[in-house]
């Protein structure tokens, strides 16, 4: 892969990878670090990237694994202002809750990947990239009412599929 091809890949998937990392870590700086680490690893794998069907799927898996590693590495003990050790800061999720959120994010990511293209695209643009209905309408050449209906259907499909994972 040439440098320009790699740059195109970075521009194509960096926003998606960042959104994925941010959903898992709930931390902007951590998500930025995750994206950087994933692209460094991809660059080092340069000659082997042709072995993969989807570099984007590989990058998503690498992001998930990196984020889970970061959560595991995070110490559950935090130093409080008065130099006493506390198990958790008030309002912060404990490691078990963090892991559950991470697992849920991974499951939802897989569900989104399996959605029909039109629904997947709208979910990604609206809920992950945070675009407005007007911006999505411009990109997809759909009217806003159609977008709202499709987004509602996509969310319903995700909800129903997600329930299958937890209520089986």
Structure description:
With about 170 residues, this protein is mainly α. α1 runs antiparallel to α2. It has a two-stranded antiparallel ribbon with strand order 1-2. It has helices at about 5-25, 30-45, 55-75, 95-115, 115-130, 135-140, 145-165, and strands at about 80, 85. The chain contains 7 helices and 2 strands. It has 2 domains: about 1-75 and about 95-110, RNA polymerase sigma factor, region 2, helix turn helix motif (Rna Polymerase Sigma Factor, Chain: A); about 115-168, Winged helix-like DNA-binding domain superfamily/Winged helix DNA-binding domain (Arc Repressor Mutant, subunit A).
Note the main attributes of this structure.
168 residues, two-stranded antiparallel sheet, single chain, Rna Polymerase Sigma Factor, Chain: A, globular, mainly alpha
Outline of the structure:
With 168 residues, the protein is mostly helical.
Unreliable spans:
75-90
What is the CATH third-level topology name of the largest domain? Rna Polymerase Sigma Factor, Chain: A
Instruction: Give the distance, in angstroms, between the N- and C-terminal Cα atoms.
Output: 44 Å
> Into how many domains do the coordinates divide?
2
Helix share of residues? Answer: over 70%
Main sheet? 2 strands, antiparallel
Number of strands: 2
- Counting helices, strands and paired strands, the structural category is mainly alpha
Strand content: under 5%
Write the CATH homologous superfamily of the largest domain.
RNA polymerase sigma factor, region 2, helix turn helix motif
Mean pLDDT: 82
Order of the strands making up the biggest sheet = 1-2
Helix count equals: 7
Shape: globular
Rounded to an integer in angstroms, the radius of gyration calculated over CA atoms is 18 Å
Supply the CATH architecture of the largest domain.
Orthogonal Bundle
């Amino acid at each position: 892969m040439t440098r320009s091809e790699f740059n195109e890949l970075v521009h194509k998937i960096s926003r998606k990878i960042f959104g994925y990392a941010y959903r898992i870590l709930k931390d902007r700086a951590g998500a930025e670090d995750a994206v950087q680490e994933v692209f460094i690893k991809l660059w080092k794998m340069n000659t082997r990237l042709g072995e993969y069907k989807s570099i984007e799927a590989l990058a998503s898996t690498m992001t998930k694994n990196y984020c889970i590693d970061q959560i595991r590495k995070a110490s559950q003990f935090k130093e409080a202002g008065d130099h006493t050790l506390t198990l958790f800061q008030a309002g912060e999720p404990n490691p078990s809750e963090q892991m559950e959120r991470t697992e849920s994010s991974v499951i939802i990511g897989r569900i989104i990947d399996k959605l029909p293209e039109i629904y997947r695209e709208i979910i990604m643009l609206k809920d992950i990239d945070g675009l407005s209905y007007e911006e999505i309408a411009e990109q997809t050449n759909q009217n806003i009412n159609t977008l709202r209906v499709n987004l509602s259907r996509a969310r319903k499909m995700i909800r129903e599929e997600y329930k299958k994972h937890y209520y089986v």
